[in-house]
Amino acid sequence: MATIRDVAKHAGVSVATVSRVINETGYVHDDTRKKVETAIKALHYTPNEVARSLFKRKSRLIGLLLPDITNPFFPELARGVEDEMQENDFRIIFGNSDENMKKEKEYIQTFVQNNVVGVIASTNHPDTDTYRKLNIPVVFLDRTADNRPSVYADGREGGRIAAQEMVARGSRQITVMQGPKHIRPAQDRFKGAIEALSDQGIAFNVVKTSSFSFTEAGTWAKELFEQHPFTDGVIASNDIVATAVLHEALRLGKNVPDDVQIIGFDDIPLSSLLTPSLTTIRQPAYDMGRAAANLLVRLIDDVNIDNKTIQMPVTFTERDTTRKVNQHG
Amino acid sequence: MATIRDVAKHAGVSVATVSRVINETGYVHDDTRKKVETAIKALHYTPNEVARSLFKRKSRLIGLLLPDITNPFFPELARGVEDEMQENDFRIIFGNSDENMKKEKEYIQTFVQNNVVGVIASTNHPDTDTYRKLNIPVVFLDRTADNRPSVYADGREGGRIAAQEMVARGSRQITVMQGPKHIRPAQDRFKGAIEALSDQGIAFNVVKTSSFSFTEAGTWAKELFEQHPFTDGVIASNDIVATAVLHEALRLGKNVPDDVQIIGFDDIPLSSLLTPSLTTIRQPAYDMGRAAANLLVRLIDDVNIDNKTIQMPVTFTERDTTRKVNQHG
């Protein structure tokens, strides 16, 4: 591969001159610039990004921290981030935090050591020094933090909608699954749901869960119907759990939605392929990823931005695990 | 944040000495080394990875190129790669190729520009110059390439097993879904399945598909039952497509597995939560990712390795979309 020295030799100029042309760091005569550009083309020279980042003190790398890429909600987010970043010629260093503060801190630290120019993080701890003390732009994704840059969906509103739609469709023995306590969006949904049920004077049971893992979801679904056998409506903390609840309800010989209605959260790609297909509260994951990346790019470019907190809509996505509203409304 | 200059001042030595200690690039007296180490600790100094990579000419970054993280098979692979890399203190630059050669080339190029020390790639084009001319280690994941380092599962054998198990369970009007032509593992599975069916003298139909996308999967499932209404067994090209076929079969009022048996490929996490749960050919995705990362780390460390091509087992994972063998065997 050609080096900067080869280019300098080919163009008959000094290495410093080639560097000035590449990094736009000082005056170079037009003729000289042309010579250098011709040499770059002739030798198929690609500037080393690391060297360039030392010269310009700016890399084209950003750090992306997500809780767990094997939860089907996050690949959609990640894909949105990547597509937008790719179009803007940025690359992504990626890590899973497992919602673990220590792991998260280590990742952010190594992102910085690798000279990322910005960070997108789904964190439960936006207020820690890990983020407060970063002197590069940070966008919180799927999480909020005061008035700092963030892209998120309104989980509380989503929870309210789920509860209202379920009641409107006739369920009166509702069980709400409380997602993991340390995951903020899960708690927002939970709060929204129980608020709306309380507002309507509807009693409900709560089943506590401690993760979004596929393997544990089955256990909670079993517990739910053992502890609350007369449940006729389940508000699940996400689509993975909802899928497990559906699976268990059918295994017990229940008719869904006639005996029990189920509403999930997220709208992961498989939701529409379940039988019956899953009614859920949709978050526009891919668009959220895109929006976060776009916001970060603008922050990196130091564009003047009016609105740094972007709330995306949640939408009731009616499929076949809920009854039609005119049957009961 | 403390700089190398602060450390030098604190320790009462030159910047060059601090650099020698950090980068292990030359002799430093034990007493001096201790002074520098004490200063590093006192000031919480973290060496800049970019500067270090220029000194040592080695970064702690590797590039990971996957086709599409929103296909649920790949997050498992990615997670395996990341967990192993994290334990070995490497970080990952990540990209989706969409099985598109141009995008793939651009990613590999920017990986190199960012001084990655190794690459893991799921590519259909291992023999192009993009990989041949790289002078850093490459491990092909989920793909093979002659005797070059790779970790993959035996798709052909997987296809054979699917066909044999389906025939053993009584299907005689089998439709095989041919996965995307440009994706090698999909074609291996397809070849294996039709070989095994031909060996047993069983006639079959073929439905062609051109991607693994969720949205298109539904269309192909519809086509399948329109074109071949008497199908009593479907060998799907992966679990996404199998899920869509199951959904369509149930929508048409067919009993699965009594009227039609379905076998998928991959064993994505949701497969066991479908109703009926999906019988599939399992690839150990997470372990494959781990193995690829482990192999790459050893190649980077220049360890002498006997076996650079690691074939992982595929296993018939019997669930409820196939009949029990004693009913028909």
Structure, explained:
The structure is a homodimer of 329-residue chains. With 329 residues, the first copy, chain A, is α/β, with parallel strands linked by helices. The first copy, chain A, folds into 3 domains: 4-56, 434 Repressor (Amino-terminal Domain) (Orthogonal Bundle); 61-153 and 285-313, Rossmann fold, CATH 3.40.50; 155-284 and 316-328, Rossmann fold. In chain A, 45% of the residues lie in helices and 16% in strands. Chain A is built from 13 helices and 12 strands. Chain A is elongated and about 85 Å long. The mean pLDDT of chain A is 91. Strand 2 of chain A pairs antiparallel with strand 2 of chain B, so a sheet runs across the interface.
Task: Look at the structure and give the mean pLDDT of chain A.
Answer: 91
Number of helices of chain A: 13
- Kindly identify the CATH topology of the largest domain in chain A: Rossmann fold
Q: CATH homologous superfamily of the largest domain in chain A - what is it?
A: Response regulator
User: Over the alpha carbons, how many angstroms does the gyration radius of chain A reach?
Assistant: 26 Å
Identify the CATH class of the largest domain in chain A: Alpha Beta
Assembly type of the shown chains?
homodimer
Uncertain stretches of chain A: none
> Helix fraction of chain A?
40-55%
Shape-level CATH architecture of the largest domain in chain A: 3-Layer(aba) Sandwich
Order of helices and strands of chain A: HHHHEHEHEHEEHEHEHEHEEHEEH
Instruction: State the shape of chain A.
Output: elongated
Number of strands of chain A: 12
- The total number of structural domains of chain A is 3
